[in-house]
Design brief:
Blueprint: H1 3-16, H2 31-47, H3 52-55, E1 72-79, E2 85-88, H4 99-116, E3 124-130, H5 135-148, E4 154-160
Helix pairs in contact: 4-5
InterPro entries: ExbD (IPR003400)
GO molecular function: transmembrane transporter activity
Organism: Novipirellula herctigrandis
Length: 162
């Protein structure tokens, strides 16, 4: 090919290209802003701790009901270290430290306490906890009882302040 033919090809290519449409000053490209927003959202979702039992606190009671321990299956929960608790029976004997074994022991204990009350109307459970017990431990014990006893009328939670 000669130089003249190459020049003609270059001119034809330039003629084919259309000029870019210029944007109005009023239009704004928000694509980068949307990208950054999604990146920040993903970062905060990944970096957040999603365990609600670790951040909750047991609210202080304004008014309380007078519930007799004689009419309840009573379980005591005491702080046992970092995010742990000591769970005890009414006679202060501890349940097992293993959570699965502890769950079955709690169910057996509550069943025995409710059956023992044939003369009295013992049909609820009282969970008594220290104010320093992690709320997740109280919730765990309450869930064990709630899952095992569908016919249980009430589960009361008492918090010892001092």
């Amino acid at each position: 090919m000669s130089n003249a033919q190459l020049d003609d090809l270059g001119q034809d290519d330039d003629a084919i290209l259309l000029p870019r449409k210029k944007r109005d000053d009023e239009e704004m490209d928000i694509t980068p802003m949307i990208d950054i927003t999604f990146l920040l959202l993903i970062f905060f979702v990944v970096a957040s701790k999603m365990d609600p039992t670790q951040i909750g606190t047991i609210p202080e009671a304004d008014n309380g009901l007078a519930i007799s321990a004689k009419d309840s299956a009573v379980i005591f929960i005491k702080p046992g270290g970092e995010d742990e608790a000591i769970v005890e029976r009414l006679d202060h004997r501890e349940f097992s430290k293993d959570e699965q074994t502890q769950a079955s022991e709690i169910i057996e204990y509550v069943t025995a306490e409710l059956e023992k009350s044939q003369g009295r109307n013992k049909n609820h459970v009282m969970i008594m906890g220290d104010k320093d017990v992690p709320v997740g431990q109280v919730t765990r014990v309450q869930k064990i009882i709630g899952d095992a006893f569908d016919d249980l009328e009430q589960t009361y939670i008492a918090v010892k302040e001092d």
